[in-house]
Structure formats: C-alpha cells, structure tokens
Amino acid sequence: MGKEFVNQQFKQFTDMLKIEHITTKGYDSRANGAVERFNKTLVHTMKKKMAVLYEWDDQIPFAVYAYNSVPHRTTGESPMYLFQGRDPRGPLEMTGEDAVGMSYADVDEYKNLMSQELLKAHKIAKEHADHECETYKRLFDAKHHTSDKTYPVPGSRVLVEIPAEKLGARCPKLINKWKGPYRVVSCSNNSAKIVPAWRRSTETLLIPFDKLRLIPSQMGNDPIVTNKGRRAWVKGNEGGEFSLDGLSEQVTYNNDLIFRDLYTCKCPTPCRFFIPDTPKFKPGCFTTSPTQFNRMHVILGLNPDMRSDPDALQLLAMSPLPLKEKPPTDAVWRAMSHCATLKLVAEDVPGWGISYQNLYGRLVNSCLSAKLMQKETVVIQLCPGVKSSQVPLSNTMIRKWDDDKEGEDTSMDSCSLALIVVPFRTDEHEVEEWQAEVDQWPSDVKNLVMVTAPGAIKDFAKVPVVAQQMKEVKRKSGNLIRITPDELVPSQQNKSLALVGDTRSYETYWKTVKAMLETLGIPWTSFELEREKRAADMEKDRKSESSTSDKGGQGPHHSVAKKRRFH
Predict the structure, then answer these.
(1) Does residue 365 sit in helix, strand or coil?
(2) Distance in angstroms (rounded) separating the CA atoms of residues 457 and 420
(3) Which site from 109, 184, 189, 349 is most exposed, i.e. has the minimal number of CB atoms within 10 Å?
(4) Distance CA 419, CA 437 (A)
(5) Basic and acidic residues composition bias: which ranges (predicted)?
(6) How many Å apart are CA 398 and CA 555, to the nearest integer?
C-alpha cells in the first residue's frame, strides 16, 4: 500500500472492521519479502511461456494457476489445498473418474471433516515454514557476518542515509547522502525509531539498520545539511581592502575532543540545578545545564569567594575552562539526583559514565544488604527432543542446558528452582531417559519441576499416556513437582495444559506454567520472556568469543565434558 491509504478516513474504516493496518518501511524492499519473492517466481514462470513479450498480461492467469497447483517446499502443500481444502483437478486428472465423486451423510459431517483436515494441514505447513525460516536465517547470518556487526541501541546517535531520489540534487551520486544526527529512541529486530538530536521534536522515524550509521561521541549535535544547488557568489570588499578596526583578541580553547556541553537534561521539562549558600538565592544561582553546573563547582573549589558573586560564577561557567575538565564529584552527583534522566546524561558526556557507575556501586554496597542483592538462580534443562525456540525465556539468572551443546559447569550452590522440560513423546525408553535426567540433580536443589514442552499435538489421546509416564519418574531425595499435560487451567477456560500449548503461543504457555507454580507456593520472581538482545550484549558476546579464539579455543565450553556433573 502507498501513502494514499494512510489517512483518517481509512483509519476509521479499519477500526470499524477491526483490521490491523500495518505499513512497511519506505525504500526497504525486504519489508515486503513474501510479495517480492512471489513476483520473482511469477516473472520467472512467465518468461518460459511467453512467445510475444507484449502479451505478458495474457499469461498471468496461467502462471498463477500453475503456482497455486504445485506443492511448495516451504509449506509442503500447494496454496490451493491450504486455502480450499482440496487439490486442483484439471481435465487430465478427471479423465476416467466417476462424475459422482465422494458422498457424505450430511453437510455438517463434510464441514467437520474438512475443518479437521485443514487444521492439520495448516499445522504441518507452519512447521515446514518455521524450519525453512530458521535454515535461511542461519545461512543469511553466516553470509553477512551479522554477529560481527555493531547495531544502534537506545540512546545512540546515528546518521540516516537519504535515497537519491529524495535528495533533489542535480548530481545526487556526488553529494553527501547522510543526514543527522538523530537520537535512537527504541530498537526492534531490524530497525530503530529515531528523533532529531539537534532540536526538540515529536516527529519520529522508523529506519532499518542498513540505512543507519553510528557516529563517534566526539562529534557534536550540529545538523548535517546537504547543499542541493550551486553555492552563491559572495561579494567581497569592492576596494579589495579589509578593515581590521574593531577586531579584538579572542581567546579560545580547543577542548571539544574531551568535553561537550549539554545545555539541558533529557527530561521533558528541563531540571534546575541550584548552587546553595548564595545571596538571596537569586535567579543567577541556578542553571539547566548539567555540564555548567559541574563547572560551577570546579570554579568554587578553586575560588570559594565566587559564591558571593553568582553573576560572575554563571558567566565563567558558560565556556570550557582553560584546564582539563573533571567528572562530577559525589557531592555534585547528589545535588543533581533529582533529575530523572541523570543516567542518560552521564552516558552522553565523555568521562562521566565511569564516575556515575562508581558512585552507584558504592551506594549499592553501603546501603543494600547482601541478602537483598542475592539473585535467584533458575535453571532450565532441555531434554533431548526439545528445541530452544519452545522455551522463549531469557534472564541473566536463567541458564539453558541442551544435550546438543557441550556441557557446562553445573555446580549450582544457590539454585532455588530447576525446570526439566521434556518432549511430548510416548516412546518406551522416554521414562528411563527422564529418570536419568532427574537422578543427575543433587538434593541441594529444593524445588525440581518437570513439565512438557509446548507445541502442536497431532493425537490428543496420548495426553494421559504422557502424564502417566511423568508420574512414573521418581526422585530419591528432594521435592519433584510434575506439571502434567492433562492438568486443567482455570485461567484458560479450564483447558488442559496440553491444549494451551497446542493452540496458544509459547509465551502464553510459560505464563500459565508460572501461574501454576505460584498456586503451589513456588514463586518464580526472575521470570522474564525472551526479548530481543541489544547491540551492547551482542558486542559483549563477540568480544568474549574473539578472546576465546585468541587463546586457542580453550574457553569454558571446551574444558568441560559433555556429560553434566553436579558438585
């Protein structure tokens, strides 16, 4: 859809019909990947059939019919079967068959059978599509080295690439195509929401990562403007002489590389920072600039008598001092503590971030007890046959173990809760494998929970069989809680847990498991659904991997045997 569909009248139309209107990003064809791939296939099919190029529109119905009649590798079925519940029948397929076809007792029987078969076909097609999606994502990441790239994070300053047709210049290929700087407000999987950094504005832009470039912290917030036309001729002095009268000596200090002024904080209404013990607390004794406020304290440290002359103190603090700037002291940080965006200010000014983190660490150590700072450790063990995508949980205090990966050191002295996620299978050897997994856990783990993984279930008659297999698993010492798939969930209209995992999303399934544990008196305070990892975490992982490879691959994942052992 184009911009002609983005208006108030069309919005009322979609709200009335309860339609979610989604617009794609401009100048990014990958946002419409499915449509673009279909167009490519359609053109490729028509090339093989056309004898006269100008008759291409006559070949479209035949190409679309061929596309809908052939099973796709991604879904495993033809589009016509997934849409209408039957395979296409042309003249060749109908030759020799009876004209009557299959008969049913009544229309309801046909509808029920058709709906059941379509549901099964859609589930199988979704599994095929998810598998293909994971395969192509892995190939794309390996080809483009996405793990080695640095992406913007909220708070970063970036430049935006402007398309050539939007520049409006006479020679768009030879001029600067970058505009900015912009401030990143939030990030998604492949794009960022940005606002102008050189002025206050409510206008937001949603730009793909490929069109953004990070800029160094040494650069200021001066806007980058592209000159579209020729530069005008500047006439000089007609006599060819320049007068030096009235010029005064200017003293400047090139201190831009180590310091940058911030004239306000990041709050919607700029905060005021007051200098105490000044005469009559007059208006000249405060500032909205955190950097100038820190500079005032530096000046007062050099000359305490300046406190009696707030006007001179304010003027001196407006420009960088002819000495090395220092980060705020603890007293200055406390004086600015009423600002809600103080942490963001500290990240923007070079040298302030470390000072802020040091003060924060000292306050944590002195004000918070060790018991309050103790983190809950929750361990999730994935048994063979369970995919990581079925457990979308992420937290720094949660560890995921998988038999497909080499084992890690699993000495969990402070483990308060452990979950064993087993697959929904009824094989004879499953009970023995599950029992072996339970026996590996030490008795120090107070609560050990056994639960099945969510996913599509083809035969619900196996639900009580899996529940009985879970009940056969015993624990020699310690508490073993079994959340069987046949348990009813009151919050989900008394559906069974297996049905919740089959019809709902994985996130809803695990929220239900968390609620069931809380009813049993087992809190899961560190529960958190998996969020998109930020670029800072990706950069940290990349550095960790590079340092491990520099040591000859002797990282922690290579030094522990695959079989897990508890100490």
Answers:
(1) helix
(2) 20
(3) 189
(4) 11
(5) 533-545
(6) 20
Residue 342, pLDDT above cutoff 60: yes
In order of 132, 134, 141, 280, the CA distances from 138 in angstroms are 10, 6, 5, 67
Burial label, 79 (beta-carbon count in 10 A; 0-12, 13-18, 19+): middle
Alpha carbon distance 175, 169 (integer Å): 8
In degrees rounded to 5, what are phi and psi of residue 404? Answer: -75, -15
Q: Containing H/E element for 191?
A: strand 191-196
Tell me: pLDDT of 272 over 50: yes
Instruction: Transcribe 262-312 into DSSP letters.
Output: -SS-SSSS---EEPSS-GGG-GGGEES-HHHHHHHHHHHHH-GGGGG-HHH
Closest CA to 416 of 447, 450, 380: 447
SS3 assignment, position 414: coil
- Of 272, 315, 269, the residue nearest 295 (C-alpha): 315
What's the pLDDT at 193? Answer: 92
CA distance 63 to 42: 7
Tell me the three state secondary structure of residue 526. Answer: coil
| 3-class SS string, 46-92 | HHHHCCCHHHHHHHHHHHHHHHHHCCCCCCCCCHHHHHHCCCCCCHH
Give pLDDT, residue 261. 67
Domains of the chain: 3-92+105-143 (3.30.420), 157-214 (2.30.30), 273-367 (no CATH), 375-535+543-547 (3.40.50)
Residue 360 has a pLDDT of 86
Q: Give the model's pLDDT for residue 407.
A: 41
pLDDT at 16: 93
pLDDT band for position 145 (50/70/90)?
confident
Residue in the block written with tokens 């798939």: 485
d(CA 49, CA 56): 9
pLDDT digits (tens, 9 = 90+) for 103-134: 666 777 777 888 888 888 888 888 888 888 88
Distance in Å from the first CA to the final CA of the chain: 60
